[in-house]
Design brief:
alpha+beta; Muramoyl-pentapeptide Carboxypeptidase, domain 2; two-stranded antiparallel ribbon; 7 helices; 6 strands
């Protein structure tokens, strides 16, 4: 960081720094949208979604790694680590979101209550962007980067959602046991037995 930019941010109040974070998050999302629209115009919707999916898979892993490193979120830390990491994503600054735990704390549900992308489309009278395929790869990758045992299930996501809803995801830990090769999912281990 150059001396002048470092000085500008070091001199900011807490409130100004929080506003800057929100602005950066909005800029990040605007860039994502501009990139997608330019790709769609040039190559069509199908190709744009395919490329968007590939980009989100890479970004979700990078974002999860940076969150774990920056905020000491433990790798293989289970659903609790995932909850903390989800709260530290760029989305959390600009989209209303919430989590719900099952009574036995074996399932974590994440809901995007307000999605800036879909809200903008709705204001323009456009149908929801069909983001389920992209979101599935994004959330699976993010969760498995935090803990490779985490299984991700889409509860609802455009185009398969009721009016007024955005996306909802459920996360669980695969049952595992220790063998001579380390910690492995029980289903995968049993599938390899003759």
């Amino acid at each position: 960081m150059s001396e002048s930019s470092a000085s500008a941010f070091h001199a900011m109040s807490r409130e100004d720094l929080l506003r800057a974070l929100e602005m950066f998050a909005k800029n990040w999302l605007a860039h994502d949208g501009c990139w997608f629209l330019a790709t769609e115009e040039r190559l069509g919707m199908e190709a744009a979604i395919e490329l968007d999916t590939r980009a989100w898979k890479q970004f979700a892993a990078a974002e999860a790694h940076r969150i774990m490193t920056t905020f000491q979120v433990p790798h293989q830390g289970g659903l609790e680590a995932l909850q903390r990491a989800l709260s530290l994503r760029m989305y959390s600054l600009i989209n209303a979101q919430r989590v719900e735990w099952s009574e036995n704390r074996k399932r974590l549900r994440f809901f995007m209550d307000v999605c800036r992308v879909q809200e903008a489309r709705r204001r323009k009278g456009l149908p929801d962007f069909p983001c389920k395929s992209v979101g599935t790869v994004e959330f699976e990758t993010f969760a498995r980067t935090i803990d490779s045992r985490i299984q991700t299930t889409c509860l609802h996501c455009p185009p398969e959602t009721t009016e007024g809803k955005y996306c909802g995801w459920e996360f669980t830990l695969a049952e595992t046991e220790v063998d001579g090769f380390g910690l492995r999912p029980i289903a995968a281990q049993n599938a390899t037995k003759p």
